[in-house]
Design brief:
heterodimer; A: mainly alpha; globular; B: alpha+beta; eight-stranded mixed sheet; four-stranded antiparallel sheet; 20% helix; elongated
Chain lengths: 430, 285
């Protein structure tokens, strides 16, 4: 594989028909979401199914989902890099793109959930450091900045290559030049670069653990049955690793097919990621058992009602589907070599992502529908939660927007780090 | 002749019977009220009369509501109308007695009468009460490191009320707490006392309100007098409002929460700024 071939294969390309259609579909869904949000802004949260019982619904489920999937950046880019797993180099950029897109949407989703987003400045003017919400704001902001840096730093050598070798539009080439910050790859630059990458890789791990632990504490610092658990931090983090890994696998497959990157994203990579996913599913299953078995053993009255609705009641079908298809099925399928082939793994990863979203819903909504004391003088309909059309449109819009951000990043930046991959091949050959 | 007389007698009897039936039926439609009057002396309303109007129905007694009852003072064969009160939904009414309504006779006795008269649908009824004012002087004494509440009772003629049963109580938010025995008898000087427990809860000012209660005396009516004294244990109320707590306001953040998270934030953002600076250095190299 020559340098020229690598650069040619990995340079960003214009979208073909499929890419354009995909982008248009995403734009349509995003615009539909924006329109529904404008209706919500105008009429208030009355247009949602949120009421006195379920004051958090699919918006918060969405928020937690985005925070979870953003953890993949730290998993692949940092943990695997620091542990010397050079095979992950082709997927580090994909992971960082997913992380940045997800964490941006996590921040926006929280604002969408606010009935009065004009009061967001109150967070800074009146925020209390004792509040888990403030911790979440601080850690999400910090994680976003570090994720962007972790995406940008490795792009320096790639932008430098592209400013000379890019075959596309001149204005894009010009921007590559500007963003490359005069990178020439001399020893001094490399020394600073390597030091920065090391700092970033180390720093992002506790940040990633922190962001999801603090998000878990938004729930765990309450007394509500189903949320009042010291297990929530690691439970959320392990779940985030699962959905993050699933997200990477799904994106790997799509991009490999779309850009014909079979030489770079090999079947062996899928095999390794599959094993990683299986291990993470088992870990998450362990935390699930902790989360439900211990309260089921003690069976405090309030927990009993909540657990019954999850395990045998209204949410039973959804709960067991999530466990079966989201955790057990992946492990069983991936256990076989055939299950670790790209297509089966892609299907499994899509199922993992969907069930992960549903799991977040099961964490948020059922607990709220079983308060300690029933509320008096409210309509019967408020004791149940059913998302409205507006909520679904906005939620789908946010998902579409996340995919749109990823699509735009894929359009303009190399999906696989060119310079790092060249170095990796050089090392492999030597 | 005989037949004519008989017919006349028959017609007359019939007419009499009819008239009598009308009268009796008219009279049996009217409610027969039962009035009860009591004389009261308490801290809230001073001297007053409480009137209760009831009637007997098929299922027992029931209250007569919204009924005007006139109150009279009978003084040496002279009666003076003091006013009118209207009974409430419980059939009761309270008539406050002002100073000029408290004129007693030579024996110190006052007589009041409540009358229900001229009210359509009701028969006339009345009830009276004879009462004498009495004065209760409450004090606090300390003896042998023990606290006692004392009461001295004298009537309107200045005579001590001896061998009268009174109740000492501690005033509380809902129900009073009896101090000592349920009933304490006054001595020949009209004095009685009760020992105060050392652990009585006081207000935040360190005071308690003690009272004396005489229940429905045949002459003095119902008496309730109170006095606030400095006694009792001031409760220790934990008020964490001014402390630095996790549930406090933003200016009362616990110090450990101020220090450590801010140290972490400063460190992390310091590194971020350092890395941004590195980008600048790289661009210059």
């Amino acid at each position: 594989m020559t340098n020229e071939k690598i650069i040619s294969d990995l340079s960003p390309r214009k979208f073909g028909t499929k890419g354009t259609v995909w982008t248009i579909i995403l734009v349509i869904f995003t615009l539909a979401g924006i329109y529904s949000y404008s209706v919500q802004l105008n009429k208030g949260l009355e247009v949602t199914g949120l009421r006195d019982y379920a004051f958090w619904g699919i918006y918060i489920s969405n928020f937690v989902f985005f925070v979870a999937i953003s953890l993949v950046g730290s998993l692949v880019t940092s943990i695997l890099r620091l542990s010397g797993a050079k095979w992950s180099i082709p997927i580090t950029r994909i992971s960082e793109i997913i992380a940045v897109a997800a964490i941006i949407m996590a921040g926006l989703t929280i604002i969408i959930d606010m009935g009065r987003p004009d009061r967001i400045w109150h967070l800074f003017a009146y925020g209390r450091l004792q509040s888990p919400i403030i911790w979440d704001v601080l850690v999400i902001t910090t994680y976003l900045v570090v994720s962007v840096m972790l995406l940008y730093y490795p792009l320096l050598p790639d932008f430098s290559i592209l400013k000379n070798k890019f075959q596309g539009a001149a204005w894009i080439k010009k921007w590559y030049g500007r963003l490359s910050l005069n990178w020439t790859g001399n020893d001094l630059q490399k020394r600073h670069y390597n030091q920065a990458i090391k700092y970033l890789s180390v720093m992002i791990i506790p940040l990633a653990f922190g962001i999801h632990t603090v998000t878990a504490w938004l729930f765990a610092t309450t007394f509500r049955p189903g949320w009042d658990s010291t297990n929530f931090g690691p439970y959320f983090v392990s779940g985030a690793f699962v959905v993050g890994a699933g997200g990477v696998i799904a994106t790997m497959y799509v991009l490999r097919r779309a850009y014909r990157l079979h030489e770079y994203i090999s079947d062996d990579l899928f095999d390794k990621m599959g094993k990683l996913l299986a291990m993470l599913c088992l870990l998450y299953l362990y935390f699930n058992i902790n989360e439900y078995l211990v309260p089921a053993y003690k069976l405090k009255k309030e927990e009993e009602i909540h657990l019954f609705s999850l395990l045998f009641g209204h949410y039973a079908a959804l709960f067991w589907s999530v466990i079966l298809f989201g955790l057990i099925l992946p492990v069983v399928t991936i256990a076989t070599p055939k299950g670790r082939k790209p297509l089966p793994l892609f299907i499994i990863s899509i199922i993992v992502i969907i069930t992960a979203w549903l799991k977040r819903f099961l964490i948020v909504a059922p607990t709220l529908l079983h308060p300690f004391m029933p509320m008096q003088g409210i309509p019967e309909s408020w004791t149940a939660y059913s998302p409205t059309y507006h909520e679904w449109a906005i939620t789908v819009g946010t998902l579409a927007m996340a995919l749109l951000i990823m699509t735009m990043l894929v359009r303009f930046i190399p999906i696989i780090p060119i310079d790092e991959f060249k170095e990796y091949l050089k090392e492999k050959e030597s | 002749m005989k037949i004519k007389a008989t017919i006349k007698l028959f017609i007359f009897s019939l007419a009499y019977l009819l008239a009598a039936t009308q009268v009796f039926s008219f009279q049996s439609e009217k409610v027969r009220p039962r009035l009860s009057v009591g004389f009261y002396n308490d801290m809230e309303n001073g001297y007053h009369i409480k009137i209760r109007a009831r009637a007997r129905g098929e299922e027992g007694y029931y209250n007569l509501t919204e009924i005007p009852v006139k109150v009279y003072k009978i003084h040496e064969e002279e009666e003076t109308e003091l006013g009118v009160l209207t009974t409430d939904e419980e059939g009761s009414g309270l008539f406050k007695l002002t100073e000029n309504m408290l004129k007693a006779d030579s024996t110190g006795v006052m007589t009041y009468e409540a009358r229900l008269e001229g009210v359509e649908g009701y028969r006339n009824a009345s009830s009276d009460v004879e009462a004498m004012m009495c004065d209760v002087e409450i004090n606090f004494v300390e003896r042998d490191s023990l606290g006692f509440v004392t009461a001295k009772l004298v009537n309107a003629l200045g005579e001590p009320l001896s061998e009268e049963d009174i109740t000492f109580y501690l005033k509380r938010s809902f129900r009073p707490l009896t101090i000592g025995d349920d009933f304490v008898s006054t001595d020949e000087e009209g004095m009685a006392e009760a020992e105060l427990a050392t652990d009585l809860p006081a207000t935040l000012n360190g005071t308690i309100t003690v009272g004396v209660f005489i229940d429905d005396h045949y002459l003095y009516g119902t008496v309730r007098q109170e006095k606030t004294i400095e006694y009792g244990q001031v409760p220790e109320i934990s008020n964490a409002f001014h402390e630095r707590t996790m549930w406090g306001t933003r200016d009362k953040t616990p110090l450990w929460l101020l220090i450590f998270p801010n140290l972490i934030l400063i460190s992390v953002w310091g590194v971020i700024l350092f890395l941004v600076h590195k980008l600048y250095i790289i661009s210059k190299l």
